[in-house]
Structure formats: C-alpha cells, structure tokens
Amino acid sequence: xxxxxxxxxxxxxxxxxxxxxxxxxxxxxxxxxxxxxxxxxxxxxxxxxxxxxxxxxxxxxxxxxxxxxxxxxxxxxxxxxxxxxxxxxxxxxxxxxxxxxxxxxxxxxxxxxxxxxxxxxxxxxxxxxxxxxxxxxxxxxxxxxxxxxxxxxxxxxxxxxxxxxxxxxxxxxxxxxx
Length: 178
Ligand SMILES: CC(C)(COP(=O)(O)OP(=O)(O)OC[C@H]1O[C@@H](n2cnc3c(N)ncnc32)[C@H](O)[C@@H]1OP(=O)(O)O)[C@@H](O)C(=O)NCCC(=O)NCCS
Prior knowledge:
34% of the residues lie in helices and 29% in strands. The protein is an alpha+beta fold. It has one domain (9-177): 3-Layer(aba) Sandwich (Aminopeptidase). Strands 1-2-3-4-5-7-6 form a seven-stranded mixed β-sheet, sandwiched between helices.
C-alpha cells in the first residue's frame, strides 16, 4: 500500500454536511458505486441523500476524510456505522477513485472502529462483494478477529469488538475441566 498522505484529516460528519455526501458520491466511478451499494446506483435521490446524511450519535455515525486546508478542504472518503441491533452495527465506507490505494480507507475504517468501541458497540458487520479485494483486505487489517461467511456473490464479515460471549459448548467444556 502507498504511504498514507499526511494532509488527510478525519472528522465526524455534521447533519448540515449533505453536500459532502454528494461530493464523495460524485467522485466514485460506476464500479466503486456498485461495490459500495451492492448494485447499480446512477445518482443519489433526495431521500437517499437525506438518509445518508442523517447522523445521530446513538445510531448513525459518519466520519469524513478531507484533504487540503481551510475553505479548500475536499472530502475524499466516508465511513459510517448504522446501529441495527443491540450493541451491533453495520459498517460501510467509500473513498473517491482519485484517492483510492493511498491508505485513506484504512484510516477511516480504523477511526470508525475506534469510535464504535468508544460508544460501547460489541459487534460490527459488513456485506462485501466477494470480488472486492480492496475492501476485504482492508477489513482483514482493521478487524483481524473478523469471521467471514460467503453467500453467493457476497461475503458477510462479522467482528466482535469485545470478547465474544461464551458458547454453551465452551461453557460445558470448562465445567468438565473444573
Ligand atoms: C474499499 C475502499 C474503501 C478501500 O479504500 P482505499 O483507500 O483504496 O484502501 P487503502 O488504500 O487503505 O487499502 C486497503 C487495502 O486494499 C488494497 N487495495 C487498494 N486498492 C486495491 C485494488 N484496486 N485492488 C486490490 N487491492 C487494493 C490495499 O493494498 C490495502 O491492502 P494492504 O493493506 O494489504 O496493502 C475503496 O477501494 C472504495 O471506496 N471502493 C469502492 C467502495 C467500496 O467497495 N466500499 C466498501 C463496501 S463495504
């Protein structure tokens, strides 16, 4: 991987940052959009943009990576989690094509996982196209404890952020040893 650029800044997305979401989307090629949304998405509709920018510290956290300074700051990537169960959230991320392969995705994902841990989430999961090598490698690095399961064209990646609860079989084995 290329060395990460030092000019990158990561910050939480604000609910007023609707344009930032649109800008990042505009920087994605057709295949990146397909990989991100697991299907063809030509453009973001108003309701989609609303949903993607509807941040909430308790259920929808979004981080944005930016390059440049002051008013010339340009958003180049987003990473988000959406809580979809008790202490569990789905994660997703995207980096504009012009900035892919420079470590931005890894930095965003690491920051997102740190935030998820800080907020007490116990498990995260992601659905990744089976041929999305970049995303799968990124997850391997950032969540080395993750388990993967392939379902047709997609891979479900699940990772505990805390010690997983003991399975009944492990519990019995422990009792037996004791
Ligand atoms: C997946 C994605 C976010 C990765 O972001 P990135 O900034 O390019 O990733 P990084 O530079 O941090 O690299 C992450 C890993 O992917 C590898 N990688 C990057 N681009 C790659 C490519 N085109 N082909 C194969 N591997 C690639 C890197 O080498 C690195 O692996 P390593 O640490 O073993 O060297 C980016 O490619 C993207 O936005 N893709 C489209 C949207 C998408 O797939 N989102 C994920 C859906 S869950």
